[in-house]
TrEMBL record:
It comes from Chlorobaculum tepidum (strain ATCC 49652 / DSM 12025 / NBRC 103806 / TLS). This is 8-oxo-dGTP diphosphatase. Its EC number is 3.6.1.55. InterPro entries: Mutator_MutT, MutT-like, MutY_C, Nudix_hydrolase, NUDIX_hydrolase-like_dom_sf, NUDIX_hydrolase_CS, NUDIX_hydrolase_dom. Pfam families: NUDIX_4 (PF14815). The keyword Metal-binding applies.
């Protein structure tokens, strides 16, 4: 089964990011993931992300950066996972259908069981924040 594009958010706050635990009974049950979901026909990636984050967490975000899409096949489905670094502009995350939410540091990620498609995303994210830690002064203004 090809389910197409899935968008998800790495929501950053104070050097941490938000992960959510999938509930029992869903695909990849009880794994930790980035909130998000499938892009619907005719919908842009940003619109899908906005819709899913409002539905799942009750927040609005602004996008900082789009990471490299990851194509992955699970035994029963194939998808393209597109992660966005984001920050919250409105609302406080509510677990909703997720079993639990947690704010973690990148160095803690190894202790959580993520879906296979998320592993290249975590690796890319680790490199990016090692180069420019979240909240670091804007490089463009460093010379001011
Ligand atoms: N949201 C999300 N989905 C992921 C991640 N990694 C990953 O493999 N997936 C897979 O992407 C697919 C879409 O996820 P979903 O089930 O949350 O999407 P949805 O809410 O639109 O679907 P639904 O209405 O069928 O429940 C699932 O098969 C899920 O297992 C991730 O980090 N975040």
């Amino acid at each position: 089964m090809v389910i197409g594009d899935v968008v998800c958010a790495i929501i950053e706050r104070d050097g941490r990011f938000l992960i959510a635990r999938r509930p029992e009974g869903k695909h990849l049950a009880r794994k930790w993931e980035f909130p998000g979901g499938k892009v619907e026909a005719g919908e842009s990636e940003a619109a899908a992300l906005d819709r899913e984050l409002q539905e799942e967490l009750g927040v609005r975000v602004e996008i900082i950066e789009r990471l490299t899409p990851v194509e992955h096949s699970y035994p029963d489905r194939s998808l393209r996972l597109i992660a966005f670094r984001c920050r919250i502009v409105d609302g406080v995350p509510d677990a909703g259908e997720h079993e639990e939410l947690r704010w973690i540091e990148i160095d803690e990620a190894g202790a959580y069981d993520f879906p296979e498609a998320d592993l290249p995303i975590l690796a890319e994210y680790r490199l990016k924040i090692a180069a420019v830690p979240p909240g670091a002064p804007d490089q463009l203004h460093k010379a001011d």
